[in-house]
Amino acid sequence: AQKITQTQPGMFVQEKEAVTLDCTYDTSDPSYGLFWYKQPSSGEMIFLIYQGSYDQQNATEGRYSLNFQKARKSANLVISASQLGDSAMYFCAMREGRTGGFKTIFGAGTRLFVKA
Amino acid sequence: SAVISQKPSRDICQRGTSLTIQCQVDSQVTMMFWYRQQPGQSLTLIATANQGSEATYESGFVIDKFPISRPNLTFSTLTVSNMSPEDSSIYLCSVEIGRTQGTEAFFGQGTRLTVV
After folding, report:
1. Phi-psi group of A43: left, alpha or beta (phi > 0 → left; psi -120 to 50 → alpha; rest → beta)
2. Which of A25, A57, A91, B107 could be bridged to A45 by S-S, CB 3.0 to 4.6 A?
3. How many CB atoms lie under 10 A from the CB of residue B70?
4. Helix, strand, or coil (residue B86)
5. Backbone dihedral region of A101: left (phi > 0), alpha (psi from -120 to 50 degrees) or beta?
6. Overall average pLDDT of the B5-34 stretch
7. Which chain B residues touch A if contact means CB-CB below 8 Å?
């Protein structure tokens, strides 16, 4: 079964508008962390935002916010005021514990295209 | 924060040879993670490298094929052994740093490997 699901292979957004990238996850571990990363065409992985399973408030980092709905097991990324430089691949990831440490699993990714 | 220096950034190798990838972190970290990103795919965790103990490998990855060293808290190497064209991928190292607001993850620049 998929642990991390990103159902949008590609998304288009007009410059200066907001966009939501979907992510759902599946875990039975009560303690877990959720990450969003950006990967531009250059290939580097850029950390955007983190949400812990026990965090009471939704995480925010500048123009990025995470819409964390624990009961629905969703962790959607909201990018406000899109910029052309936001065009990239976006990955959702989940870290869950296991014996001896923890493991991070990545979703398939969503490619975002920002139109001028 | 953390800065990770990963090298080489890219290489073209003959099948049957081996390549060692190095990651240097500018701070001490307990765990370092090695990922593979096949063309057009998401990231897959290869192994977790702990200082002072053997690396923990994920299903489908074995030590003979991907030996890992972790001689101290700031450095790790991943070797891709007896390479075949199927090993052509981007290989990335990563660390996670805890902070008051949560966890932040950092990646090396990646090693783009082509096996011919």
Report:
1. left
2. B107
3. 20
4. helix
5. left
6. 95
7. 31, 33, 41-45, 48, 50, 56, 58, 90, 92, 94, 96, 101-107, 109-110, 112
Q: Which residue has the tokens 């939501």?
A: A20
At A70-85, the pLDDT tens digits run 999 999 999 999 999 9
What's the rounded Cα separation, in Å, for the pair B105 and A50?
A: 9
Which residues does residue A38 pair with via DSSP β-bridges, in sequence order?
A46, A90
> B29, B34, B42: which to substitute to probe chain A, counting the most A Cβ within 10 Å?
B42
Residue where the block lists tokens 């096949």: B38
Tokens of A49: 């935002």
Q: Which residue of A has its CA nearest to B98?
A: A50
- How far from the centroid of its chain's Cα atoms is residue A24's Cα? 9
Chain segment B57-114, per-residue pLDDT in tens: 999 999 999 999 999 999 999 999 999 999 999 999 999 888 776 788 899 999 999 9
Structure token digits, residue A55: 């965090």
Q: Which tokens go with B63?
A: 């030590």
Judged by CB atoms closer than 8 Å, whether chains meet at B102 and A52 is answered as yes
Distance CA(B22)–CA(B110), nearest Å, equals 10
pLDDT at position B96 is 86
What is the dihedral sign for C-alpha A47, A111, B80, B10? negative
Residue B79: which residues within 8 A CB-CB, separation 6 or more? B18, B19, B20, B21, B66, B67, B68
